Hints:
alpha/beta, five-stranded mixed sheet, 15 helices
Amino acid sequence: xCRVFSARARFGLAAxxxxxxxxxxxxxxxACAKPxxxxxxxxxxxVVAQAPVEIPKAEPAAPRPVLPxxxxxxxxxxxxxxxxxxxxxxxxxxxxxTVDPFVDGLTGVQSNATQALAARxxxxxxxxxxxxxxxxxxxxxxGRSPWVLIGTLTGVNAERKAExxxxxxxxxxxxxxxxxxxxxxxxxxxxxxxxxxxxxLPFYRDAPVLAEDAAxxxxxxxxxxxxxxxxxxxxxxxxxLVAATLAEAADAYGAGQHxxxxxxxxxxxxxxxxxxxxxxxxxYLTQWRLGRRDAAGQAFARIVDQGLDGKRxxxxxxxxxxxxxxxxDPSAGPPSPYSTWVAAMASSAAKRNGCLxxxxxxxxxxxxxxxxxxxxxxxxxxxxxxxxxxxxxxxxITAIGAGSRETVVGNGRDDASDALDRRVELKIVDC
Length: 431
């Protein structure tokens, strides 16, 4: 704008304009000749210092109360079914729902307690949630229904951690959509120990080992995801049909129908994903019960190989209380299986690279000093037997005692329910 008016002044246009226009042009030219000056802006009002606004912190969620067992089951089940977001069933029909037998959240063991948890949950579904039709867990029902209910019951200490002496049960329930591989509902509660029977069911009571098993681990991790929309562990979804067959086989074993159970375990082994710890355990137990010792030994060798492939195998050697002397359960019948176990363990360990660590464990009763000595004595007893079977192990085997620092049950009952706390573990380690 200033350049326009300056140009007009140079060409003498101001002289031809009237006086008023001339005065205006002169003023504009003078203004343009001055350096640019920022326009005057009204000063902002003074800032008055204020105390910072204190945003209240969210209160941490109160820990869930510890309820009597039956009340805790109802609490978790109602959370689960209330959070399940399912579309209405076609034609007003009910959603078919199967219940995969619940397990201990640390060991994968099924017990009287986990069975009671599942039964109470099923009854609640039938009585108060008519949109669901509760079905048993087998190959037929799994193929019919995509909805599967899973659950874990885990002993936890005062800090609600699965270690040390257990004081409370943590109940986790989850509803799985096997088509999408997602959780659609979850529930969590804590229960008192009173009146709960932790005795393992027959198949798990008689199982000789504790080892990593991908299918069982997939079940536990899926159940404890605890948020609708969380993915289900692929190992669980991929092997759910095998799991249904194994559940039927374990029921048959528990009923004393060993020949029928053997056929089901053999069927599971032939299925995709059937080569898992529960399958080989079932083959070992049923063959042993039927007097087929050689076949049982072969099945136990596969158990050992799978455990040592995962570099860790916990074996339930039973010792007389306060000693390192092995004791055999009379109900298993003669002969004692320990010689078969040790032979398979020594053979498998001898074929592997690395060194073998033999770790003894003790249940949490008694003083820690006594438990340390006792667990070491038991580890050395098994170490000696392994070296007798395979002398080449002598230069790369070490026995240590862990006392009661690594309990997996932790109820302190010193009976079949916590036999895993008195296990001897074999670990493949670097030399």
